[in-house]
User: Fold this.
Amino acid sequence: MSFDIQGKVALVTGANRGIGKQYVETFLEHGAAKVYAAVRNLDSAQPLVAKYGDRVVPVRLDVADNATVKAAAQEASDVDVVINNAGILRTANPLEEKALDTLSEEINVNVAGLLRVAQAFAPILAKNGGGALANLNSVASLKNFAAFATYAASKSAAYSITQGLRDTLKEQGTIVVSVHPGPIATDMASSAGFTEVAEPPTLVTEATLQAFKNGDFHVFPDTMAKQVGAAYQSFAENVIDADFSGE
Assistant:
Protein backbone atom coordinates (compact mmCIF):
# COMPACT_ATOMS: atom_id res chain seq x y z
CA MET A 1 0.00 0.00 0.00
CA SER A 2 1.07 3.58 -0.63
CA PHE A 3 -0.17 6.93 0.64
CA ASP A 4 0.56 10.46 -0.61
CA ILE A 5 -0.20 13.51 1.56
CA GLN A 6 -0.98 15.72 -1.47
CA GLY A 7 -4.53 17.05 -1.15
CA LYS A 8 -5.22 15.04 2.00
CA VAL A 9 -6.50 16.02 5.45
CA ALA A 10 -4.33 15.21 8.48
CA LEU A 11 -4.62 15.33 12.24
CA VAL A 12 -1.53 15.67 14.45
CA THR A 13 -1.64 15.27 18.23
CA GLY A 14 0.68 17.45 20.28
CA ALA A 15 0.85 19.81 17.31
CA ASN A 16 1.83 22.99 19.12
CA ARG A 17 5.58 22.32 19.43
CA GLY A 18 8.50 20.06 18.62
CA ILE A 19 8.01 17.17 16.22
CA GLY A 20 4.22 17.64 16.21
CA LYS A 21 4.51 21.23 15.00
CA GLN A 22 6.98 20.13 12.36
CA TYR A 23 4.53 17.49 11.10
CA VAL A 24 1.93 20.22 10.57
CA GLU A 25 4.37 22.37 8.63
CA THR A 26 5.86 19.52 6.59
CA PHE A 27 2.45 18.20 5.59
CA LEU A 28 1.27 21.62 4.46
CA GLU A 29 4.51 22.23 2.56
CA HIS A 30 3.97 18.92 0.75
CA GLY A 31 0.47 19.84 -0.33
CA ALA A 32 -1.89 18.67 2.42
CA ALA A 33 -5.23 20.39 2.04
CA LYS A 34 -5.75 20.86 5.78
CA VAL A 35 -4.22 19.83 9.10
CA TYR A 36 -6.08 19.59 12.38
CA ALA A 37 -3.69 20.77 15.09
CA ALA A 38 -4.81 18.63 18.02
CA VAL A 39 -3.75 20.29 21.26
CA ARG A 40 -4.83 20.51 24.88
CA ASN A 41 -4.89 24.31 24.79
CA LEU A 42 -6.35 25.80 21.60
CA ASP A 43 -4.44 29.06 22.03
CA SER A 44 -1.14 27.18 21.68
CA ALA A 45 -1.94 26.47 18.02
CA GLN A 46 -2.53 30.10 17.09
CA PRO A 47 1.01 30.68 15.73
CA LEU A 48 0.34 27.96 13.17
CA VAL A 49 -2.99 29.52 12.26
CA ALA A 50 -1.33 32.90 11.89
CA LYS A 51 1.22 31.39 9.50
CA TYR A 52 -1.00 29.08 7.44
CA GLY A 53 -4.49 30.52 7.81
CA ASP A 54 -7.51 28.24 7.51
CA ARG A 55 -5.36 25.32 6.35
CA VAL A 56 -4.68 24.77 10.07
CA VAL A 57 -7.69 23.98 12.26
CA PRO A 58 -7.04 23.82 16.02
CA VAL A 59 -9.01 21.11 17.80
CA ARG A 60 -8.97 20.36 21.51
CA LEU A 61 -7.63 16.89 22.24
CA ASP A 62 -6.00 15.51 25.37
CA VAL A 63 -4.92 11.91 24.78
CA ALA A 64 -5.38 11.22 28.51
CA ASP A 65 -9.04 12.31 28.33
CA ASN A 66 -11.15 9.99 26.21
CA ALA A 67 -14.05 12.45 26.03
CA THR A 68 -11.88 15.01 24.23
CA VAL A 69 -10.54 12.32 21.88
CA LYS A 70 -14.06 11.27 20.89
CA ALA A 71 -15.17 14.89 20.48
CA ALA A 72 -12.16 15.61 18.26
CA ALA A 73 -13.00 12.58 16.13
CA GLN A 74 -16.51 13.91 15.59
CA GLU A 75 -15.12 17.32 14.58
CA ALA A 76 -12.35 15.95 12.35
CA SER A 77 -14.46 13.42 10.49
CA ASP A 78 -12.74 14.12 7.16
CA VAL A 79 -9.20 13.03 8.11
CA ASP A 80 -7.10 10.78 5.88
CA VAL A 81 -4.01 10.53 8.10
CA VAL A 82 -3.49 10.59 11.87
CA ILE A 83 -0.18 11.22 13.62
CA ASN A 84 -0.02 9.91 17.19
CA ASN A 85 2.71 12.29 18.34
CA ALA A 86 1.61 13.51 21.79
CA GLY A 87 3.55 11.99 24.64
CA ILE A 88 5.35 12.66 27.91
CA LEU A 89 8.77 11.80 29.31
CA ARG A 90 9.53 11.51 33.01
CA THR A 91 13.04 10.83 34.29
CA ALA A 92 13.15 7.91 36.72
CA ASN A 93 15.49 4.96 37.09
CA PRO A 94 13.88 1.62 38.03
CA LEU A 95 14.76 1.82 41.74
CA GLU A 96 13.54 5.34 42.46
CA GLU A 97 10.47 5.57 44.67
CA LYS A 98 8.69 7.66 42.05
CA ALA A 99 9.25 5.06 39.31
CA LEU A 100 5.86 3.38 39.75
CA ASP A 101 4.07 6.73 39.53
CA THR A 102 6.02 7.84 36.46
CA LEU A 103 5.40 4.50 34.78
CA SER A 104 1.68 4.75 35.43
CA GLU A 105 1.53 8.30 34.07
CA GLU A 106 3.56 7.46 30.96
CA ILE A 107 1.56 4.32 30.24
CA ASN A 108 -1.66 6.34 30.46
CA VAL A 109 -0.44 8.94 27.96
CA ASN A 110 2.05 7.13 25.74
CA VAL A 111 0.22 3.81 25.44
CA ALA A 112 -3.42 4.21 26.45
CA GLY A 113 -3.49 7.65 24.82
CA LEU A 114 -2.22 6.15 21.57
CA LEU A 115 -4.95 3.51 21.76
CA ARG A 116 -7.68 6.07 22.50
CA VAL A 117 -6.76 8.00 19.37
CA ALA A 118 -6.47 4.86 17.23
CA GLN A 119 -9.83 3.53 18.37
CA ALA A 120 -11.58 6.85 17.77
CA PHE A 121 -10.09 7.53 14.35
CA ALA A 122 -9.77 4.06 12.79
CA PRO A 123 -13.44 4.01 11.70
CA ILE A 124 -13.02 7.47 10.20
CA LEU A 125 -9.94 6.41 8.23
CA ALA A 126 -11.85 3.38 6.98
CA LYS A 127 -14.81 5.51 5.91
CA ASN A 128 -12.49 7.89 4.07
CA GLY A 129 -10.72 5.18 2.09
CA GLY A 130 -8.12 3.75 4.47
CA GLY A 131 -5.48 6.46 4.80
CA ALA A 132 -2.55 6.25 7.17
CA LEU A 133 -1.68 6.19 10.87
CA ALA A 134 1.77 6.92 12.33
CA ASN A 135 2.82 6.36 15.93
CA LEU A 136 5.88 8.07 17.43
CA ASN A 137 7.60 5.25 19.31
CA SER A 138 11.26 6.34 19.74
CA VAL A 139 14.49 4.31 19.75
CA ALA A 140 13.74 3.99 23.46
CA SER A 141 11.12 1.41 22.47
CA LEU A 142 14.02 -0.89 21.54
CA LYS A 143 16.74 0.21 23.97
CA ASN A 144 16.13 1.07 27.62
CA PHE A 145 18.04 3.96 29.19
CA ALA A 146 18.23 3.73 32.99
CA ALA A 147 17.77 7.47 33.59
CA PHE A 148 14.32 7.31 31.97
CA ALA A 149 13.57 3.62 32.23
CA THR A 150 9.83 4.01 32.69
CA TYR A 151 9.54 6.16 29.56
CA ALA A 152 11.37 3.49 27.56
CA ALA A 153 9.06 0.83 28.98
CA SER A 154 6.01 2.82 27.88
CA LYS A 155 7.44 3.24 24.39
CA SER A 156 8.15 -0.49 24.17
CA ALA A 157 4.49 -1.12 24.96
CA ALA A 158 3.44 1.48 22.40
CA TYR A 159 5.59 -0.23 19.75
CA SER A 160 3.97 -3.58 20.55
CA ILE A 161 0.50 -2.05 20.24
CA THR A 162 1.54 -0.46 16.94
CA GLN A 163 2.37 -3.90 15.54
CA GLY A 164 -1.11 -5.06 16.52
CA LEU A 165 -2.65 -2.00 14.90
CA ARG A 166 -0.77 -2.65 11.67
CA ASP A 167 -2.17 -6.17 11.41
CA THR A 168 -5.68 -5.09 12.42
CA LEU A 169 -5.95 -2.02 10.19
CA LYS A 170 -4.49 -3.73 7.15
CA GLU A 171 -7.94 -5.18 6.48
CA GLN A 172 -9.42 -1.68 6.04
CA GLY A 173 -6.55 -0.46 3.85
CA THR A 174 -4.90 1.77 6.47
CA ILE A 175 -1.10 2.07 6.34
CA VAL A 176 0.43 1.97 9.84
CA VAL A 177 3.92 3.34 10.44
CA SER A 178 6.08 2.98 13.55
CA VAL A 179 8.45 5.95 13.89
CA HIS A 180 11.56 5.52 16.06
CA PRO A 181 13.47 8.80 16.40
CA GLY A 182 16.64 9.19 18.41
CA PRO A 183 17.56 12.56 19.94
CA ILE A 184 15.61 15.27 18.08
CA ALA A 185 15.93 18.99 18.79
CA THR A 186 12.81 19.46 20.95
CA ASP A 187 12.03 20.46 24.52
CA MET A 188 11.72 16.77 25.39
CA ALA A 189 15.24 16.02 24.14
CA SER A 190 16.58 18.95 26.13
CA SER A 191 14.95 17.69 29.31
CA ALA A 192 16.56 14.28 28.72
CA GLY A 193 20.01 15.85 28.32
CA PHE A 194 20.45 15.18 24.60
CA THR A 195 20.80 18.78 23.38
CA GLU A 196 24.31 18.41 21.95
CA VAL A 197 23.50 15.41 19.75
CA ALA A 198 19.92 16.33 18.84
CA GLU A 199 19.04 16.60 15.14
CA PRO A 200 16.31 18.56 13.27
CA PRO A 201 12.64 17.49 13.52
CA THR A 202 12.38 17.65 9.71
CA LEU A 203 14.30 14.36 9.55
CA VAL A 204 11.38 12.68 11.31
CA THR A 205 8.58 14.22 9.30
CA GLU A 206 10.18 13.79 5.90
CA ALA A 207 11.06 10.16 6.66
CA THR A 208 7.48 9.51 7.72
CA LEU A 209 6.14 10.84 4.43
CA GLN A 210 8.59 8.62 2.56
CA ALA A 211 7.44 5.60 4.57
CA PHE A 212 3.84 6.39 3.65
CA LYS A 213 4.79 6.42 -0.03
CA ASN A 214 6.87 3.24 0.20
CA GLY A 215 4.49 1.33 2.45
CA ASP A 216 7.25 0.85 5.05
CA PHE A 217 6.40 -0.04 8.63
CA HIS A 218 9.54 1.11 10.48
CA VAL A 219 11.06 4.58 10.30
CA PHE A 220 14.54 5.24 11.71
CA PRO A 221 15.07 8.87 10.70
CA ASP A 222 18.22 10.26 12.37
CA THR A 223 21.82 9.23 13.04
CA MET A 224 21.25 7.31 16.28
CA ALA A 225 18.01 5.83 14.96
CA LYS A 226 19.69 4.60 11.77
CA GLN A 227 22.37 2.89 13.88
CA VAL A 228 19.72 1.13 15.94
CA GLY A 229 17.66 0.34 12.86
CA ALA A 230 20.60 -1.24 11.03
CA ALA A 231 21.29 -3.54 13.98
CA TYR A 232 17.58 -4.35 14.32
CA GLN A 233 16.90 -4.97 10.63
CA SER A 234 17.38 -8.73 10.60
CA PHE A 235 15.13 -9.26 13.63
CA ALA A 236 12.50 -6.95 12.17
CA GLU A 237 12.47 -8.79 8.85
CA ASN A 238 12.50 -12.29 10.33
CA VAL A 239 10.24 -11.76 13.33
CA ILE A 240 8.30 -8.46 13.37
CA ASP A 241 7.43 -8.54 9.67
CA ALA A 242 7.05 -12.33 9.45
CA ASP A 243 3.67 -14.03 9.20
CA PHE A 244 3.23 -16.45 12.11
CA SER A 245 -0.47 -16.97 11.45
CA GLY A 246 0.14 -20.36 9.84
CA GLU A 247 -1.97 -19.44 6.84
In short: The chain is about 45% helix and 15% strand. The chain has one domain: 9-240.
